[in-house]
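Work Package 3 (structural annotation) set out to generate three-dimensional models for the target panel prioritized at the project kickoff. During this period the team completed the workflow that converts sequence records into discrete structure tokens, so that structures can be stored uniformly alongside our sequence database. As a representative example, we reproduce one entry of 193 residues exactly as it appears in the project archive.
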Amino acid sequence: MSGFISLIFIYKMQAMDTQDLLSILRMRFEKHKTRHPNLKWENVVKKLEANPTKRASLQKMEESGGEPDVVDFDKKSGTFIFFDCSPESPKERRSWCYDKEALDKRKENKPKNNAMDVAKSMGIEILDETDYRFLQTLGAFDQKTSSWLKTPENIRKLGGAVFGDFRYGTVFVYHNGADSYYASRGFRGKLSV
């Protein structure tokens, strides 16, 4: 992550305390009950209060425009699954190529960063195609933007990367060179807490 972006995250994290974050997450949880009809906020907040590292990751998701919300509960691991649920790809995570290899490959007009490294620095994973299609069952996301998706290794080895968007009432998953970047393409993350 570039130094400038790191400083923005640090500043914003200091500006927002834990109670502010939990309040925002609770309001979103209550506003969008259809995303998690059988879950109770009391159970979610217990997990969040007990895990400051995961809370910090959620804070980074929030501060970069992701609007994280609970979308599922994994009974096997006993964890709540958060996805970025902003209507469009998170604004502060756009205009980056897919990964460091792609960034290093560009000779000119390099973007400032890459999606995979930023996700890692935030402590989150990029949604894969299955996650993205599940997200789209909860609403209409990326109607004007697109989001990089975790790319299968066989595609990445050939220089490609996949992205998704929602147009014409349909989820589209397509490809680009991993070194491409667009002002309207970012990435969405997920976090298990």
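Residues 3-84 form one domain.
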